[in-house]
Design goal:
about 500 residues; 5-stranded antiparallel sheet; 17 helices; globular
């Protein structure tokens, strides 16, 4: 095994002078931390709804306690699975926190899912109840259960029950279904302790203060918006303003208002903000963060030129929430995702796979013993499936997914390296590289390019050849109007491969 710089050194770099192991588990559970924060500043405007209305800490505590009590009074019990589906709003947040305070295991559902996608989650989670904004999706849930369950809307609920806030750190809190898989869904079962440790770690590393205001345009059915944006805000005792969806003009205008100090996004959001006037409107923020997909180095530099800072790039996944981050106070290296966050241990296997362990890492998947056997090493480390390299400072660079590795002519080609090389051409707005089946090469390195203007294929290939060894240079370039993405903006490489093969798998 190749091991990173000492974990203690990494933790101290992120959180100097902090007893990390004690701080990560302080307050025991998410509601335990949040209740302490609410009591410290009850009149603090903490949650801004999409209509602009602010909800104070004491109002949030009272509404979520009442919601939790109503769930328990209705016959739901701690440990029951409970679906939550709706557009981003304060009502959705109150329902979510209320369910956690009732001890339920929340399974968020993307409101854009189709009926078969919803049915697969229902079949796997076997929920005892649900809060669903859409009447159509509520009907799908009822039809998929094959039994009577409680399905409600997101409206406020009132009840009193002494069992509220009984969850402990080891109790399950969140059932997040991983994206990009086929067949039976795979649910990552995260405990209160997992979520608390990760939210605390990023709070320490990013200097999250009670006076911070986060502009949150990420969806709340995903780990990034929920486990980092919302959890982090509440654990820090800070404030968050919800946006129902990402709109570049809306985000730029609000960032320029001076009301906010933080913005978290994915690379595609920053690409849509790249018009210089809009990027410049981010200049007043204390912290920009980018994640969920690699941030191209060339884009990072362009953001810095207009916004005054390189977005702090970090690395995480559904099963672990956050793992590494560039230093808040130190140099931010475009293309790297930094060093282990407080509490996280990281190592590279002989094949370059990133393996991790820590209080933020799931103990296993929901009812998937075969997946657990594949995902954990014999000595208890979680296998991320990501391939990485460590520089002399111990910073991690992700070079691809083990399943995305292209083997062309017997040589290993990491898509991200090729993407970075092609992405430096001024005519290239976006690029993704995949391996397509080839009788001659085994896999043919192919670049899919969204261009900002006319550019010959040969010019891009020559540009790549000046920066890459011959076997890494794409054999061809496919020009496309846009790249297929999932709900959080990650590029769906399999869809590009399918299109290129004429729809054949």
């Amino acid at each position: 095994m190749s091991v990173s710089r000492s974990d203690a050194e990494s933790w101290a770099a992120h959180a100097p002078g902090v007893d990390v192991r004690a701080e990560l588990v302080r307050d025991g559970s998410l509601p335990g931390r949040w209740r302490r924060r609410w009591s410290e500043r009850p009149a603090w405007p903490q949650l801004r709804d999409v209509d602009g209305t602010w909800i104070t800490s004491e109002e949030l505590e009272a509404r979520t306690r009442a919601y939790a009590g109503s769930l328990l009074q209705a016959g739901l019990a701690p440990g029951d699975r409970w679906l939550l589906c709706g557009s981003t709003s304060a009502a959705l947040v109150i329902a979510y926190i209320g369910a956690l305070r009732a001890g339920l295991i929340v399974a968020p559902v993307n409101p854009a899912y189709t009926e078969p996608e919803v049915a697969r989650i229902v079949a796997d989670a076997r929920p005892a109840g649900a809060a669903i904004e859409s009447m159509e999706i509520a009907g799908w849930v009822r039809a998929a259960t094959g039994r009577e369950i409680q399905v409600h809307g997101l409206e406020a609920r009132v009840g009193i029950d002494e069992r509220v806030d009984g969850a402990r750190g080891e109790d399950p809190a969140l059932l997040l279904y991983t994206s990009g898989t086929t067949g039976r869904p795979k649910g990552a079962l995260l405990t209160h302790g997992n979520l608390l440790a990760s939210a605390t770690a990023v709070g320490l590393a990013w200097r999250w203060e009670t006076g911070d205001r986060l502009l949150l345009a990420l969806p709340l059915f995903h780990a990034h918006g929920l486990g980092v944006g919302l959890h982090g805000t509440l654990c820090a005792g800070a404030a968050v303003a919800l946006r129902e969806r990402f709109d570049p003009a809306d985000v730029a205008e609000r960032c320029a208002s001076g009301e906010y100090s933080m913005f978290f996004g994915v690379p595609t959001m920053y690409t849509r903000l790249e018009e210089p006037r809009r990027l410049g409107e981010l200049a007043g923020l204390r912290l920009l963060v980018s994640g969920s997909a690699p941030l191209p180095a060339a884009l990072a530099e362009r953001i810095a030129a207009h916004a005054g800072q390189i977005p702090l790039e970090r690395y995480g996944m559904t099963e672990t929430i956050m793992l590494t981050s560039n230093l808040y106070d130190g140099p931010r290296k475009p293309g790297t995702v930094g060093i282990p966050l407080p509490g996280v241990e990281l190592r590279l296997a002989d094949d370059g796979e990133v393996q991790v362990r820590g209080p933020n890492v799931i103990a296993g998947y929901w009812e998937r013993p075969e997946a657990n056997a594949e995902s954990f090493t014999d000595d208890g480390w979680f296998r991320t499936g990501d391939l990485g390299e460590l520089d002399e400072d111990g910073s991690l660079t992700l070079v691809g997914r083990s399943k995305e590795l292209i083997i062309s002519g017997g040589f290993n080609v990491y898509p991200r390296e090729v993407e970075e090389a092609i992405g430096t051409h001024p005519a290239v707005r976006e690029v993704t590289v995949v391996g397509l089946r080839s009788e001659r090469w085994g896999e043919e390195v192919t670049a899919f390019v969204v261009s900002g203007g006319p550019v010959p294929e040969r010019e891009l290939l020559d540009h790549a050849a000046q920066r890459l060894t011959a076997y890494k240079v794409p054999k061809r370039v496919e020009f496309v109007e846009s790249l297929p993405r999932n709900a959080l903006g990650k590029i769906v490489r399999a869809e590009l491969a399918r299109r290129a093969s004429g729809g054949r798998e």
